[in-house]
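User: Thanks for the earlier help. One more: Putative transmembrane protein 70 log mitochondrial. Can you show the sequence and predicted structure together?

Assistant: Of course, both are below.
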Amino acid sequence: ENCIIFCSKLAKMIALSSLRLYPRIGCKTLPALCGVYHPHTHNLPKKTVRCYSTEKTSKNEDLTVYEGPLSSRIKIVKLFSLSTSVAGLAAQPIVIEQASKLGGTFLVLLSSGFVGFFTFVTPFLLHWITKKYVTQLKYNPPTEEYTATTISFFLTPSHTKFKVSDVKVPDVPGMFTSFHIGKKALFVDPRQFPDTSHYVKIMGYDKPIDFKLELIENPKDDATKKDHKQ
């Protein structure tokens, strides 16, 4: 009989442990059930489970409002260009030595110019084209400030902070130029904004259109026109 009682108690303990469906981590148990009902636990002591999270969202956290789709490709191309420049710079003494043995001064100048072009000109040309490209744009709601990230010459991130009042949109957009922050030109793709309201705000499209009429600054020209009419 003792063995049967022990086996029945053990079976009940296993059944009760299998019915504990609620997670323990990050949860507190309270004496009230609050209307939670389970068909297999209606005979068990009624408890409620309160789950809580320790993560807090900061109101001062910057929101990512834009990411450039060509960021990784630009980094790869610039890294390849810098690598070939370093290799060309290291191989230039050997190239000059071999050229002097084969063809004299003319061949030395020709080979030096060819190697020097890919060593020095190509990285600067790539940087001049890609330095305006914004890889990431973040927005801080409390300060209403944007942070634009671009790629520097040595592939390090360069950050430019600005507000909407600092933006100057050119009347005639230049090559790879969307707007200016001071003397720095930046380029963004409007199709990559998940929330286009940020692009509209930056470009000033939410402002009323100001139709400016050309006024005659020279009063003499104005007087001559009046004389012709008379």
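User: Great, one quick takeaway?

Assistant: Residues 71-102 form the longest helix (32 residues).
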